[in-house]
Amino acid sequence: MTGQYSGPWNVLPGAGPSDGIEGSSQRPFLARAGLFRNTLVLMVAIGPLAGCAVGPDFTRPALPEVKGYTSTTAKLSLTPGAGEPSQRLVEAQAIPADWWRLFRAPALDGVVRAAMAGSPSLNAARATLAQSQQAVAQSRGGYYPQVDFAASAERQRGPAFALGLLPPAQGLPVFNLYSLGPTVSYSPDVFGLTARRVEQQEALAETQGYQLAAAHLAITGNVVTQALIIASARRQIDALRGIVADDEQTLAMSRDKFAAGRITRSDVLGAETQLANDRSLLPSLEQQQSAAEDSLAVLVGKSPAAWTAPEFDLADFALPPELPVSLPSTLVQQRPDILAAEAELHASSAAVGVATAQMYPNFPLSASLDTAALGATSLFERSSLVWTLVGGLTAPLFHGGALEAQRRGAVDSFQASLAVYRQTVLQAFGQVADTLRTLDHDAQRVEDERHALEAATGMLELQRSTYAAGRTDLLRLLDAERSAEQARLGYARAQVQRYLDSAALFVAMGGGWWEDPTLCTDCRARIGAPGGNRAPATGTPAQGAKE
């Protein structure tokens, strides 16, 4: 049963039925307020008579039956060799709320926390959530009687039989009429219209809560990514500056040999060209670093002119040795974007119930207790009491098909929300699959890039010594320098890519937001995380809206 009544009005359970005002002329006027009180109690007592809510009841979509994310079994051990750090994928491992601290970079932790405190995006998400919670409170007001107070002063011309005035022979009298008093109105939720509206608003508020968690996850993930991009750009810039220094040394040797007549002018020009080409790569890397620093400033809620990013160095980061991998059936219960899509589906289900309930009768009740008099000084006399008690019925008979079209439209909206939910799940699974494959490829790539760097460095040293001794030409030396340049930059990119993709896996797994009490106090129970009991949901089956 839904739409049952609870609230402060239950403090009057023993009030007796109204006895009108007959025989009450000896009572003080204020004692007659018991009539109004009894009327309220009568309205509240009707609440439990509300029937079951019409429309579909929501059940959560079935958990996916797949056990993995890729068609082939993912490697659990990521061991590149060649002295590179290894990683291990751990199934069903708990994800901490502050997962970024696993990179062991204190400066990164400070920036992430600054972003969580100052990000306008997070503040907007918090305000939107608060707004949706007030909408829930507003919708719950439909469970209670609406009590108002009215007062009026009128001047009329006409008969006033109820007030004891008879029209004189020469015409209708002109008189003043004063009235004041409370009114109460109430509609019992017989077919669950109010209950479905509350259910819809609660689902929408839940959606905003999960969107806040998604914004929180996006902010933390983007901060880690931009910090790593800064560290990567700095590492590549350092490598490129070393290459430029080598080019300058080669150019100096070439000029000495040209002055001694041992090489031609074209050899010197070749060395100058190599130096210029390598120097031309620096501005793009410096721009990449600057752009990441500016993005980081925006993420923490500051202007780039008013905030300076820390000088992140890749050496300050540690590669997390263990990476969590949740089962698909667990992922759909912990990723905030999937949970938000599910809450939207719940809201669409409740909207079907709202549209269905609007096709059923409504039973409005109202009551008023007024004082009416021809003079303001007579308002509180015993004979001025006037009361009304009204019960009604309104039922839709013909609306030109509008109500049925509204219900069918709500069902169509539910089907659209169901498709969006399924697409969100598929995209999440695809993101995890791509990240798992990328991590495997990253381990192989960093091993290959390290071997290439060692070989290119050895070849460069050999060519320099032979060129200095005059046993080889400049062309071979320049080729060795190009190979060493590409190997250094490739190795630096391969190193940072492992960090970036490790962070991407934490984000793809949901980032442990449910462990953060600042987001919600019962997050673990909401998603059924270990140590919490998953809260049940009520509203429409994932297979479709039942009629």
Helix-strand pattern, N to C? Answer: HEEHHEEHHHEHHEEHHH
CATH class: Mainly Alpha
Question: Main sheet, how many strands, which sense, barrel?
Answer: 4 strands, antiparallel
CATH H-tier superfamily:
Outer membrane efflux proteins (OEP)
The total of beta strands comes to 7
Question: Which regions are unreliable across 5 or more consecutive residues at pLDDT < 50?
Answer: 1-33, 531-547
CATH structural fold name? Outer membrane efflux proteins (OEP)
Secondary-structure class: alpha+beta
Q: In percent terms, what proportion of residues is strand?
A: 5-15%
How much is the radius of gyration in Å? 38 Å
CATH arch. level architecture: Up-down Bundle
Distance between the termini: 18 Å
The overall pLDDT average reads 83
Strand order of the largest sheet: 3-4-6-7
Integer count of domains: 1
Q: Categorize the overall geometry.
A: elongated
Number of helices: 11
Helix content: 40-55%
Question: Can you walk me through this structure?
Answer:
- It is a single chain.
- The chain has helices at residues 33-46, 106-118, 120-140, 193-259, 265-280, 282-299, 328-331, 336-357, 402-468, 474-508, 523-527, and strands at 77-78, 87-91, 146-157, 174-186, 322-325, 365-373, 385-391.
- The longest helix has 67 residues, at 193-259.
- Helix 4 (193-259) runs antiparallel to helix 6 (282-299) and helix 4 runs antiparallel to helix 10 (474-508).
- A 4-stranded antiparallel β-sheet has the order 3-4-6-7, covered by helices on one side.
- Mean pLDDT is 83; it is low at 1-33 and 531-547.
- The chain has 547 residues and is of the alpha+beta class.
- The protein contains 11 helices and 7 strands.
- It has one domain (55-143, 190-361, 401-527): Outer membrane efflux proteins (OEP) (Up-down Bundle), CATH 1.20.1600.10.
- A hairpin with an 8-residue loop joins strand 1 and strand 2.
